[in-house]
UniProtKB/TrEMBL annotation:
Span list, region Disordered: 1-107, 120-149, 164-193
Biased composition regions of type Pro residues, renumbered to the chain: 181-193
Record keywords: Membrane, Transmembrane, Transmembrane helix
Protein name from the UniProt record: GET complex, subunit GET2
UniProt biased composition (Polar residues): 37-46, 128-145
Classification via InterPro entries: Get2/sif1
Parts of the chain that traverse the membrane: 199-217, 237-260, 307-327
Comp. bias intervals (Low complexity): 82-93
Compositional bias segments (type: Basic and acidic residues): 8-24
């Protein structure tokens, strides 16, 4: 009885395990390869058929079919799962001396560059066995490239003019940088005015007063009636007097102005200095306009000088009338 019951119990257990295994296979096929049945090492359970008592019934172990082969049969194709690649451990953190960057300059090259920028003279080494200072070139660049602009700049920085070195002058390292471009046209700085040019307003004033004095003291009394004296000039202070005779003073004054202004023009005293904003805008204007503007400013300067002479002439006439009225009384 015990043997039959044990066999029946083993049979039921085997059927139960087989049904559980089929259910697990269906669930695994629906979930895919992420099911824990493939990840658990002990997921392949054994079907054991036998008695519970050792030695009574021989226990036969039947391994379950491979889940991967069941998945291939169910899906119809082979699914390849690549194994993750393992990176080689980095040794840069434990390397005390990393490789130097080939694009950086050494300490000597940096110091040489700073000395060249500061304009220091290259003194020869004390020891004759020592070589020349290292050239300021990048390790990745060729030292025999004559067309390299950086090498040309460095060579111009490190070279000095012997005459300038004797005089103690620091060379200009950027003097030849723009040699391929034409220099900009810059106007020469204005020269200080000469002493004669500074005295031109005084010369105009004295010439005008001398001409007026000649006509008042010499030319007009020759045509005036005798016995009137300064009274005819004193009458001009309060009425229009007909005692003062007409003389050709206008033409004489015009001739004097022509002589004075011609002297200014031919002596170069009529040069003008336009304002800063106008001087900056003149080169940008079309061709006729700058000449017209400059000539107009010159004529305005001449006209201003003529108005100054007229003002001096009117002031001198007023002083003559006032002195004549004081002398006549």
């Amino acid at each position: 009885m015990s043997t039959a019951a044990a066999r029946a119990e083993a049979r039921r257990r085997a059927l139960r395990e087989r049904g559980t295994d089929r259910l697990a296979k269906l669930t695994t096929s629906a979930r895919g390869e992420d099911s824990p049945v493939y990840n658990t090492p002990g997921s392949s359970c054994l079907s054991r058929i036998g008695t519970l008592q050792p030695g009574s019934v021989s226990v036969t172990e039947k391994p379950l079919p491979n889940p991967t082969s069941n998945l291939e049969n169910f899906v119809g194709e082979e699914t390849y799962v690549p194994s993750p690649s393992r990176r080689a451990p980095s040794t840069s953190a434990f390397n005390p001396t990393p490789a130097a960057d080939p694009s950086t300059w050494s300490q000597e090259q940096q110091m040489e560059f700073m000395r060249a920028l500061m304009g220091a003279a290259m003194t020869p080494p004390n020891n004759p066995s020592q070589g020349a200072p290292p050239s300021i070139t990048s390790p990745g660049q060729s030292t025999s490239a004559p067309d390299d602009p950086l090498a040309a700049l460095m060579s111009s920085l490190t070279q000095m003019d012997p005459q300038a070195a004797d005089a103690g002058a620091v060379p200009n390292p950027f003097a030849n940088m723009g040699s391929s471009f034409p220099p900009p046209q810059t106007s020469s700085p204005p020269k200080p005015p000469s002493a004669l040019r500074k005295l031109m307003p005084l010369i105009h004033l004295l010439a005008t007063w001398c001409l007026l004095a000649y006509y008042v003291l010499v030319s007009e009394p020759r045509t005036a009636f005798a016995g009137q004296g300064w009274q005819r000039w004193a009458d001009l202070a309060w009425r229009k007097s007909g005692a003062v005779q007409a003389v050709p003073f206008f033409w004489a004054f015009t001739t004097l102005q022509l002589v004075l202004h011609s002297w200014r023009v031919f002596s170069g005293f009529d040069t003008i200095q336009p304002p800063m904003l106008l001087a900056m805008a003149l080169p940008q204007l079309p061709k006729p306009l700058p000449a017209i503007i400059l000539n107009g400013m010159k004529y305005m300067q001449l006209g201003g000088a003529m108005l100054d002479d007229l003002a001096a002439l009117v002031f001198a006439l007023g002083m003559i009338v006032w002195v004549a009225s004081w002398l006549s009384n």
